[in-house]
Amino acid sequence: MKIIDLSHPLNDHTPTYPGDPKTVIKEITSLKKDGYLTTRLTTSLHNGTHVDSPCHLSDNTKHIDDYSLDTFIGTPTIIKTSDPIIDLTQSIQDTISNSKIVIFQTNYDTYYGTDDYYSNHPIITLSLADALIDAGVKVVGFDSPSPDKDPFEVHQHLFNHDVLIVENLTNLASLEDYKDIVIHMVPLRIHAEASLIRAYAIVDDEKPF
Q1: What is the distance between the alpha carbons of residues 158 and 140, in angstroms, rounded to a whole number?
Q2: Cβ distance 49 to 199 under 8 Å?
Q3: Spatial separation of the C-alpha atoms in residues 158 and 78, rounded to whole Å
Q4: Cross-strand pairs, 166
Q5: pTM recorded for the entire structure
Q6: Is the pLDDT of residue 16 over 60?
Q7: What is the domain count for the chain?
Q8: Is 209 among the domain residues?
Q9: 20 to 30 A Cα–Cα from 29, which one of 100, 104, 196, 203?
């Protein structure tokens, strides 16, 4: 068994979506002065690798802690694409059939920390979002900051059908040599619209390809 980390580090230098507060990690007691170390974390729940729930954009909808843990664990369908606008194709249609978790590997995580990351990232179309919904997908993940841009119609459409969105994944290219993959993207047990996650994949040591 091998574990592959799919999360960006969370620290004072973590990039933030334009307008969101920065992450601050501050020691509030010290071993030298107080005899014990305590650290305070102040952050937007949308910084770093995280998951969004429907109440991010809609009233009277589910929070993160309304979902069972098994929602966030499973065998993913990984779609590798370099298209700036990812539309529904027959190949994608066939690939996502009966998938619970679908991950889009665009390798755009290589731009993480640059201005382009939040302004020029790839997006998916509403027709592709429809196909994900029709296939019964429960979680869709991206190695980019968002599946869409303002006015966030894809976000809203997915949320309207109870599909969770994972953003800012990284290192998906490390999974390419493996066939049997189980991904874990488990949030905090928090009553909020989003949660930081530690995303990772469990694979066999032996590479089948």
Answers
A1: 9
A2: yes
A3: 18
A4: 51, 141
A5: 0.95
A6: yes
A7: 1
A8: no
A9: 196
